[in-house]
């Protein structure tokens, strides 16, 4: 019986934690072959090498599943199902190569295996297989957007370029460079290839960079069947790209496939396997803070969680979908993936998370630039206007509560940015988007620079502090009201108490319930080369609260017709002609 490969077993590589690839077996490292001494046991019950049947049974057309093994000597293979139907599925002795077919494979849960060496041997190949040939041979174009991260980006591009040499299904790599012209020699050599294109354009944000790659990928004579979007600030094990292609070979119709985000600084901790739209929080990260080295962390993939969208740190979209639905809405940054995910969902294209496909990305905890919160708020209101059937249009009290979080984090500049975002949406699209994405962003930065900055401290100049505690924020209305009243009182008396109590210290900017209207410090970046002092300031608090109440009331009184007009205007800005005009803007205008 012919065996068709579904998923290769891969060893630890690219500096990533070995425990994500194997449970036991120190010799399992890098590419095969892997040497085994008699009596050795290699256990592959791990995030990258377990098989999760639920996602395959739901979304693909496969038959029987088995494990294909190639070794130079006698081994024993034990295959185990974990979850509701935990059981030993196979316990088979092999003398060299063979396929262990699994006739009682459960439709959910997790399937893992271990290999026991009965004599000195080498493992030369391992992989999950099926007895049904692929439905088709998917091909891939890759779209990368980058802005002044040349050193880190060169590593990702080199890994992809090497993979492209090995896998002819990767037809083309498109790079939208919105920063300084590359000087890295590695990038220069890769750019000489006919199958790699580096496109320089003005800074249109991540949205503009990704959209440029989508335009180019769908404009060639013979486009790839799918387009992969990836960030520039990731660490990539390029073999997961092959994983995605292997899965898509068995998919009928249009389906978007997303990869998970693992914390760059805590590289076994999952930060997001995908996200749902949430009426109260707008988006809810699924799987946040789970440990992928534990049975509990792996169990969340036993029944594939439903997601509404996948962030574009790794997301594969059918090119047929892009052609049919058009291009993203030009919203610069922070929400382009949400907007397009909503559009796909509204038009019958599901987005799924594929276990064993992930990138390492900087944690959200350290993305605290105040200007980002402008785009979070503005684009949240845009998406609610565009997709009212999917996204709840926030009520006035929601906007008030959202800004209150920043107030009681002592992040008054961020609160001001949110107020500005609401004002701009109320003013209309010409104000909210500006003449173009870059000029609007530059105007925003000029406005931010007029606000008093937070004091920054060197690591060797920190004051005495007390350790802060980190507890989740209760976002229920009674809890938020109580916190607001309490912290208003505490903030008012804080200047009197400041000489008698030290600031609190946190590993990152905490939720406001942990601040308690106190001064506190937190690292500016994950590397902690500088710290920021966030001081409770009663006058600023009263000013921000008054303006937030006023703009929230104005928002609540705005007629629905305004938001309907806003949606139509946003849709009109998606055309290729509009985007081409943006791409044609000269670089270095500012």
Automatic annotation (TrEMBL):
Xref: Gene3D superfamilies: 3.90.550.60
Ranges in coiled-coil conformation: none
InterPro entries in the record: GlfT2_N, Nucleotide-diphossugar_trans
Domain Galactofuranosyltransferase GlfT2 N-terminal: 35-131
A Pfam family annotated for this UniProt entry: Glft2_N
Source organism superkingdom: Bacteria
Name of the protein described by the UniProt record: Galactofuranosyltransferase GlfT2 N-terminal domain-containing protein
Lineage: Bacteria, Pseudomonadati, Pseudomonadota, Alphaproteobacteria, Rhodobacterales
């Amino acid at each position: 019986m012919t065996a068709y490969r579904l998923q290769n077993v891969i060893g630890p590589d690219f500096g990533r934690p070995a425990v994500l690839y194997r449970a036991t077996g120190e010799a399992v490292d890098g590419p095969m072959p892997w040497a085994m001494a008699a009596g050795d046991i290699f256990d592959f019950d791990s995030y990258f090498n377990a098989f999760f049947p639920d996602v395959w049974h739901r979304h693909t057309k496969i038959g029987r599943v088995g494990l294909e093994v190639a070794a130079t000597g006698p081994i024993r293979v034990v295959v185990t199902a974990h979850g509701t139907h935990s059981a030993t599925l196979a316990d088979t002795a092999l003398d060299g190569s063979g396929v262990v077919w699994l006739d009682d494979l459960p439709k959910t849960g997790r399937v893992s295996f271990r290999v026991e060496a009965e004599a000195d041997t080498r493992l030369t190949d391992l992989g999950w297989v099926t007895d049904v040939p692929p439905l088709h041979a998917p091909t891939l174009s890759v779209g990368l957007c980058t802005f002044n991260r040349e050193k880190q980006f060169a590593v990702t591009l080199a890994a992809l370029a090497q993979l492209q040499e090995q896998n002819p299904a990767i037809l083309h790599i498109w790079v939208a460079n919105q920063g300084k012209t590359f000087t890295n020699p590695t990038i220069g050599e890769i750019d000489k290839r006919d199958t790699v294109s580096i496109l320089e354009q003005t800074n249109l944000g991540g949205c503009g960079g990704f959209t440029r790659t989508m335009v180019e990928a769908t404009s060639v004579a013979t486009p790839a069947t799918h387009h992969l979007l990836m960030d520039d600030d990731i660490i990539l094990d390029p073999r997961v790209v092959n994983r995605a292609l292997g899965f898509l070979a068995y998919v009928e119709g249009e389906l978007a496939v997303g990869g998970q985000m693992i914390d760059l600084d805590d590289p076994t901790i999952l930060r997001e396997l995908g996200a749902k739209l949430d009426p109260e929080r707008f988006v809810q990260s699924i799987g946040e803070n789970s440990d992928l080295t534990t049975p509990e962390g792996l169990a969340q993939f036993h029944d594939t969680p439903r997601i509404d969208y996948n962030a574009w740190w790794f997301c594969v979209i059918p090119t047929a979908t892009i052609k049919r639905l058009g291009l993203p809405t030009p919203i610069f940054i922070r929400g382009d993936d949400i907007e397009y995910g909503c559009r796909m969902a509204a038009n019958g294209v599901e987005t799924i998370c594929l276990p064993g496909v992930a990138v390492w990305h900087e944690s959200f905890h350290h993305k605290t630039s105040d200007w980002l919160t402008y785009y979070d708020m503005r684009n949240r209101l845009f998406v609610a206007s565009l997709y009212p059937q999917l996204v709840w249009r926030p009520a006035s009290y929601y906007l008030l509560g959202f800004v209150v979080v920043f107030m009681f984090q002592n992040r008054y500049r961020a609160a001001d940015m949110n107020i500005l975002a609401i004002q701009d949406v109320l003013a209309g699209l010409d104000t909210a988007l500006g003449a173009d994405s870059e000029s609007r962003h530059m105007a925003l930065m000029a406005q931010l620079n007029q606000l008093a900055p937070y004091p920054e401290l060197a690591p060797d100049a920190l004051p005495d502090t007390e350790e802060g505690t980190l507890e989740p924020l209760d976002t229920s209305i009674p809890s938020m009201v109580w916190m607001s009243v309490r912290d208003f009182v505490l903030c008012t008396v804080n200047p009197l108490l400041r000489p008698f109590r030290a600031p609190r210290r946190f590993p990152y900017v905490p939720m406001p319930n942990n601040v308690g209207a106190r001064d506190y410090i937190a690292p500016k970046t994950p590397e902690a080369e500088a710290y920021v002092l966030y001081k409770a300031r009663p006058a600023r608090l009263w000013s921000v609260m008054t303006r937030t109440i006023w703009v929230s009331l104005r928002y609540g009184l705005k007629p629905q017709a305004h938001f309907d007009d806003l949606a139509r205007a946003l849709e009109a800005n998606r055309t290729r002609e509009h985007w081409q005009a943006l791409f044609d803007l000269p670089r270095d205008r500012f």
